[in-house]
Automatic annotation (TrEMBL), chain A:
The ABC transporter domain, residue ranges: 5-243
Protein name: ABC transporter ATP-binding protein
SMART domains: AAA
Lineage: Bacteria, Bacillati, Actinomycetota, Actinomycetes, Propionibacteriales
Protein keywords: ATP-binding, Nucleotide-binding, Transport
TrEMBL record, chain B:
Domain Transcription regulator PadR N-terminal: 6-78
Record's protein name: PadR family transcriptional regulator
Lineage: superkingdom: Bacteria
Residue span(s) of domain Transcription regulator PadR C-terminal: 90-165
């Protein structure tokens, strides 16, 4: 089956005042439909650069990016923007909601941008907000919402066009632990409905919520591991336990 | 486990089953079924060392042995209360295994580290699921939170080991 997202020998070099910085140094990564993948690594390992390259938000230096069987790294800005609107959902660390729009208008926006009718967009947006437990927040401005609520609106917006892949850049990075747990549970619920997800995080606890964890180091894949469903935990009471 | 038993006997004398119940009260379902043998052998050792004294009494339908602290037991408990547990944790089974296996040429360090990283990530997932599920006791939940923080540090440590440890055996 065609992978949802694939990179081939992907590389990115930044030129910082005459010095070449190799941010990504040749990454081959394949994300299949329905996978929940976390990319983890210390700051500077290249994970955010990788995400931006995969989303077409940044230009590759070498290598290829394929989304849904189509090569996207050479598309024009206009074609990339159209592709992102239709195929990719984003969740960011700082939510990036439109501050002048209400919660429901933020969720409607991507639907209207791909040409859905107003009524249809309103119905779909309310369903999404209801699913994420925001049925009483339709008309709230982002500034009236807590961080966790804003991220849930952002998640509803990201899911609005049933994207091929949902990309998250530190989606829990600006949330307290309770909201962070809530957002992770919603991401897992999206995965359970078949949504493909790819998160970038420096937090290994967040990464462990995914089914596959890719560890980057110095712009390369250092490890790529599949996790199983959570196993039951038992506490030892002998030496080394809680006593 | 010994000092914990002394603490559970500080205020009242108890028999083995009551000690088991007191532990389950705090730590709940995550506590593996404590086997009676473990409890009774610990109590027997404490009694042998003069820290508790047991007395057999007739129960509802069978004899039980009820234990209470001795003077020496109370002093040992006070000592335990007043002494912080050691802060430095230099005991690490994985690191010893890695160093010895690598130097003996019995395993590839990179593969050992990858396997261990998988185990740590899986354990993080297990603990996070336990903490997220309803119904765990506050004490068990906090213990899991602590283990999660340690695992995050262990994962960082694995990265450091991977960067610093010579990965090739010195040619003979």
């Amino acid at each position: 089956m065609t992978p949802v997202l694939e990179t081939r020998r992907l590389a990115k070099t930044y030129d910082t005042g005459g010095t070449q910085v190799l941010a990504v140094r040749g990454i081959d990564l394949t994300i299949s439909r329905g996978e929940f993948v976390a990319i983890v690594g210390p700051s500077g390992c290249g994970k955010s650069t990788l995400l931006n390259l995969m989303a077409g938000l940044d230009r590759v230096t070498a290598g290829e990016v394929w989304l849904g069987g189509r090569r996207i790294d050479q598309l024009s800005e206009t074609a990339l923007a159209r592709m992102r609107r239709q195929k990719v959902g984003f969740v960011f660390q700082f939510f990036n909601l439109m501050p002048t729009l209400s919660a429901i208008e933020n969720v409607e926006l991507p639907l209207l941008l791909v040409g859905r009718h107003r009524k249809e967009a309103r119905d779909a947006a309310s369903r999404l907000l209801d699913d994420l437990g925001l049925e009483d927040k339709y008309d709230a401005a982002p500034s009236q919402l807590s961080g966790g609520e804003q991220q849930r609106v952002a998640l509803a917006r990201a899911l609005a066009n049933t994207p091929d892949i949902l990309l998250g850049d530190e989606p829990t990075g600006n949330l307290d632990s309770a909201s962070s747990r809530e957002v992770l549970a919603l991401l897992r619920a999206a995965r359970d409905r078949g949504q493909t997800l790819l998160l970038v995080t420096h937090d290994t606890r967040v990464a462990a919520a995914a089914d596959r964890v890719v560890t980057l180091r110095d712009g390369l894949v250092n490890d790529d591991t599949e996790l199983q469903a959570a196993r039951p935990v038992t506490l030892p009471l002998d030496a080394g336990g809680p006593v | 486990m010994r000092s914990l038993f002394l603490a559970l006997l500080a205020d009242e004398s108890r028999h083995g089953y009551e000690i088991k119940q007191a532990l389950e009260q705090e730590f709940g379902d995550q506590l593996p079924a404590l086997n009676a043998g473990q409890i009774y052998s610990t109590l027997a050792r404490l009694e042998r060392d003069g820290l508790v004294v047991g007395q057999s009494i007739e129960g509802d339908n069978r004899r039980k042995r009820v234990y209470e602290l001795t003077e020496a037991g109370r002093a040992a408990l006070t000592g335990w209360i007043e002494t912080p547990v050691p802060g430095t944790r230099l005991k690490d089974e994985f690191f010893m295994k890695l160093v010895i296996l690598a130097s003996a040429g019995l395993a590839e360090p990179k593969a050992l580290i990858a396997g261990q990283r998988r185990e740590y990530l899986q354990s993080l997932r297990d603990l996070d699921a336990m903490v997220s599920a309803d119904g765990s006791r506050p004490a068990a939940e906090l213990l899991a939170e602590g283990a999660i923080l340690h695992l995050k540090a262990d994962l960082e440590w694995l990265d450091l080991i991977e960067q610093r440890l010579p990965m090739q055996r010195e040619p003979a």
